[in-house]
Design brief:
The protein is α+β, with helices and mostly antiparallel strands. It has one domain: tRNA(His) guanylyltransferase (Thg1) (Alpha-Beta Plaits, 2-Layer Sandwich). It is 47% helix and 14% strand. It has helices at residues 33-39, 48-64, 93-115, 139-168, 174-181, 186-197, 206-210, 226-232, 243-255, 268-273, 275-279; strands at residues 23-30, 68-74, 77-82, 129-136, 212-217, 257-261. The protein has a six-stranded antiparallel β-sheet with strand order 4-1-3-2-5-6, sandwiched between helices. It is globular and about 80 Å long. Bound molecules: 2'-deoxyguanosine-5'-triphosphate and magnesium ion (4 copies). Residues 29-34, 37, 42-44, 46-47, 50-51, 75-76 line the site of 2'-deoxyguanosine-5'-triphosphate.
Amino acid sequence: LKEHRFEYVKSFEQPDVLLPNTWIVVRIDGRGFHKLSDHYAFAKPNDRRALDLMNAAAVEVMKELPDLCIAYGVSDEFSFVFHPNCQLFERRNGKLVTTIVSTFTAHYVYKWSEYFPDRPLLPPHLPSFDGRAVIYPNNRILRDYMSWRQVDCHINNLYNTTFWTMVLQGGMSNTDAEQELKGTLSADKNEILFKRFGINYNNELEIYKKGTVLYRQYELEEPKPTKSLADEEAPVFESKQSKSQQDKIRKLRRKAQVVIDHVDIIKDEFWEKRPWILSGNP
Ligand code: DGT
Ligand code: MG
Ligand code: MG
Ligand code: MG
Ligand code: MG
């Protein structure tokens, strides 16, 4: 029989396993959302419904993939974070990225009409997302990555808020506003907003200024078995967890509430108050 004569093609598939014991961040980003946001007339600079839809789709991704320990979203992007001890899909890059991108996109499309009941989603203006995985070798660098995204959110939002206020409330042309803002510092933008438009930037919504962080909350559960889970096995960075411990952790994560928050993730406080995020336990 010659049924097996085609099987050699399997050997053309290349391994793409991500380094062990490193944080994995899968960042997805809307393709051509500049155009999409125009087409569906998203509010400028921030469309609350569009952001809520991004967050709702991301919550579903967190629920479907209990291995995820935290996610951060801003604009048309979301970063999903797997703990160094994660063994999902044997840490295969392609499988992790494509699963996250397609799960997110499916929920984004499914929920669209709930958030935009008056703007039916129609081809050729359909949302799609790209995605990539990056590994980070330790907690400090993972936190610097998260800080980088939140700083980006702040810088962009201050610029966009000032720009669109000058255009929409100040009646300036896009090019004039752009010209005036060229080379300005944060303090200058705050002053333009306050002196010319009576807007205190600090009073803008937290979701716009800080973006969105998703994580699991365990407080409502009965006393956590942190002790037994922590003592049973060596620290996560030193040894692989057993299959049974991974299952236990996955179960606890599945039961936990996914919280939508708009808070500072740059300072220590956020991480110190929620030690399970960096410890991966549960
Ligand atoms: P890409 O990612 O290279 O395919 O291209 P874009 O167009 O998606 O560019 P990107 O991701 O750098 O920037 C995100 C775009 O999405 C940006 O043009 C503004 C738009 N956008 C995101 N959120 C909002 C929103 O809440 N309101 C409005 N009006 N636009 C938004
Ligand atoms: Mg982009
Ligand atoms: Mg984009
Ligand atoms: Mg983007
Ligand atoms: Mg299959």
